[in-house]
Amino acid sequence: MRHFSLLLVNILAFSSLHTPSVTTASTTSNLPKMQLAQKLNCNNAQTQAVINECAKLSYQNADKKLNQVYQQLVSTLERSRKQKLIAAQQAWIKFRDNNCEFETSKYEGGSISPTIYFSCLENITKQRTQQLREYLKPDA
Fold first, then answer.
1. Sorting pLDDT into bands at 50, 70 and 90, what band is 134?
2. What's the mean pLDDT in 65-86?
3. Within 13 Å, how many C-alpha atoms sit on residue 127's CB side?
4. What's the mean pLDDT when you consider all of the chain?
5. DSSP string, the chain
6. What pLDDT score does 11 carry?
């Protein structure tokens, strides 16, 4: 019986030692977030994860420019034209999102899927930005 008690104590001691290593192991899920916090080298992306993140950042940059041009245009329009532009922009956003989801569906489940999606968003967004810039021209 004493031998059994010592065995039980040892099992409990080892199981309590094992708990911190499990906790440490669970923190490794934060590694991708920590790696993404580092500066990305989008000119020399080496992994699909980095390529995906760079594509996302590139799209976000294009979206920021679009919003700047859009706000600039909105501020120049009288009320009735402003409402029409808002409606057009909302319809355009639905088109853009649906179109890029369709384009990406060919690669669904693949690691390249986010790159395809964000590249599509970026390209269409740049086109729309150029369209809105044309409206800012005096003769438009």
1. very high
2. 97
3. 9
4. 80
5. -HHHHHHHHHHHHHHHHHHHHHHHHHGGGGHHHHHHHSPP-GGG--SHHHHHHHHHHHHHHHHHHHHHHHHHHHTTS-HHHHHHHHHHHHHHHHHHHHHHHHHHHTTTTSTTHHHHHHHHHHHHHHHHHHHHHHHHSTT-
6. 37
